[in-house]
Amino acid sequence: MKPLTIATAALLSLAAAGSAAAAQPLAQYSLNQGKVHFGVPTNWVAMMQKTSGDPQLYAFQVPNAKAPDTLTRVTVSTHQVGDMTAFAAFVKNAMAKAAQMDAYASEATPGGQSTALRFRAEEDGDKLRFREHFYYKSGLAVTLRCVSPAAIPAASSWHRAYVRACDALAAELAK
Question: Which of 61, 71, 81, 95 could form a disulfide with 141 if both were Cys (CB 3.0 to 4.6 A apart)?
Answer without folding.
Answer: 81
